[in-house]
């Protein structure tokens, strides 16, 4: 079989299926020149589950993206020094990440440990720490120092994050997701806007303390194109009228905002740049949209 002709996704499935049989993989490398050549070249994507392979990572030393489910530590991490993207889910330990200096994207959603222990990764641009129970304002400040090149961050469903965290984010963000962060208020939005004037996408869904004043702060952003206010039920028509004047806004979700009426939606309809407006679970009538 010409292994080098197989898509990386197929190779990933094969690797995930046989990783526990390390002898078979090694034997295959000896028996098949094309398999050996592909291993030497490396695959672009690798997906494994469970504890993970303790010794065979050197066979895939050129992997660019690794998805690891329920890991308790990244054995053989040093072999993945060229890794660009790492996805870890519900992990208990992130030991080994410091051996991956080329990482530009890291997903540790559901991490059970303290994010303050994350090592410095100067090239990291995308970070997902959503649903991390131990993420605090102090941990966010550590992240800011450790990942100075960040462009997008997801802190959704981190119940301990407050307004203070938004004032210490690394400057230069273009996207931030804060869904379900119920301690975020208008003051935090104000601080975020002052620090991050280049933001293009913001998710405030489920941030139930955000009011029209917060939308007034958001309106100062000159590049904001995507805004999610799903179930921000303190938002009223006045806030929507403010947003209607934002010429850069192309996508808006106001689903579940129960205090808006056709007056606010009619104002949004006058914004020719808005290509998408979601109004699920809103009980009003209008002919404008």
Give a quick summary of the entry:
This protein is α/β, with parallel strands linked by helices. The protein is built from nine helices and eleven strands.
Task: Characterize the structure shown.
With 289 residues, the chain is of the alpha/beta class. The protein has helices spanning 8-18, 22-31, 33-41, 137-146, 163-166, 186-195, 212-218, 237-243, 262-268; strands at 45-49, 65-69, 85-89, 105-107, 126-128, 152-154, 175-177, 201-203, 226-228, 251-253, 276-278. Strands 1-2-3-4-5-6-7-8-9-10-11 form an eleven-stranded parallel sheet. The longest helix has 11 residues, at 8-18. The model is unreliable at 19-23, 38-46 and 50-62 (pLDDT under 50).
Which residue ranges are poorly predicted, with pLDDT under 50 across at least 5 consecutive positions? 19-23, 38-46, 50-62
Range of helix content: 25-40%
- Strand arrangement within the widest β-sheet reads 1-2-3-4-5-6-7-8-9-10-11
Look at the structure and give the CATH class of the largest domain: Alpha Beta
Domain tally: 2
Task: Give the second-level CATH assignment, the architecture of the largest domain.
Answer: Alpha-Beta Horseshoe
Largest sheet composition: 11 strands, parallel
Cα Rg: 23 Å
Helix/strand-derived category reads: alpha/beta
> How much beta, percentage-wise?
5-15%
Separation of the first and last Cα atoms: 56 Å
Mean pLDDT: 81
| Basic shape | elongated
Q: Order of helices and strands, N to C? A: HHHEEEEEHEHEHEHEHEHE
> Can you count the helices?
9
CATH superfamily of the largest domain: Ribonuclease Inhibitor
